[in-house]
Design goal:
Blueprint lengths: L1 H8 L5 H13 L1 H24 L8 H7 L26 H7 L5 H4 L6 H51 L19 H8 L20 H8 L7 H8 L5 H9 L3 H10 L4 E4 L2 E3 L2 E3 L10 E5 L3 E5 L2 E8 L7 E5 L4 E4 L1 H6 L23 E2 L13
Antiparallel strand pairs: 1-4, 1-9, 2-3, 4-7, 5-6, 7-8
Amino acid sequence: MREELLGYLLAALEPHEMRRVDARLKSDPFYREELADVQRMLEAVDRRVEQDGPIDVPEDLVERTMAMIPARPAADHDASGFDEFRIPRQLRRRDTVVGLVPAPLEHAVAGGRPTWADLVVGGLVAGVLLTVSLLGFARHRAEARSVVCQDHLRDLGTMLGQFVLRDQDSYLPRIAESGPKSFAGHFSIDLVAAGLLDDGRLLRCPAARTTLSDPLVDWVEDADSEATASQRLTLWNGLVTPEMLQEAVDGESWALLKRYQHCAGGDYCFVFGVFENDRYHSPKYEARSFFAVMGDVPFAGTHVADRVDVSKMQWAHPDNAANMLFEDGSVRQLFPARMLSVIDHPYVNHRGAIEAGVNPDDAVLGASPRSPFIESRQR
């Protein structure tokens, strides 16, 4: 929350995010208090900078730095006039210089003018260094995004734990076999109904290649969309409420229903129900460390009818890792090779299909719009 408010004060958010914060500030007094706290923090930083003042840079810094660089003889002077003792001892011998620098630069170090070869090699070295630094930056940025996704999963795991404690039989949110509630993302609507989830940002993973809620944002921005004023305010926060889903069903707004089903779960998969004694029901909470409850949505894979080639599934995190929330509340990363070696693959059931688990220990994760069964009717 504070990160969003900081971006709001610094005008660093996207236009639709700025509007969403504006809308929430008008309706949420607690959110306004948080904004005031962040603003006070920024003012304290400003005061500290004003007290300490800018860093004083000595006026002769450049001259002193240049004086520390060993002089070299001009190219058109006699080499006999060059004072060898004005350069460091390690560089006095010509063979030492040759051993320290590439051959094309030998002439330049010895005191000659840079040649085209020198410039080419220098440009190549600079290009390599720039490439390495950019790759390192990109890697660190990707890792940071992955950590944010893991934090969101932990927060959602805490909410699911509270949901289970309130349920008489300790069941996780139920994904219906068919009908309007027959989609994996419905878990978020159950959390909203229980008063546990009020911030749609937790459903978003900044590393996701294609954010599932983006089409919903585009649709809400459309002045001709079917959303009412109250729905727009809620959707800016990235959440779908039970009332909104029911209104779409009652009004037979099937296109609107489809958007809700597609976007409600955000960038995370949720576990389908399982079969026990030939009866389908939601998984019962048993604090299992191997039973996956939520995970990142894969952005690639080879689907054939109701099956998927799990060896070709890809995720947006470094080294093709997938963040996974398990029933015991732990969040870990799994890699494709590791998934293939475990007894229970988290993205397909024991029959190799993206459908409900065939037994109580068969966890299967599905993206928001997917139903527990291929033949399920969603309206």
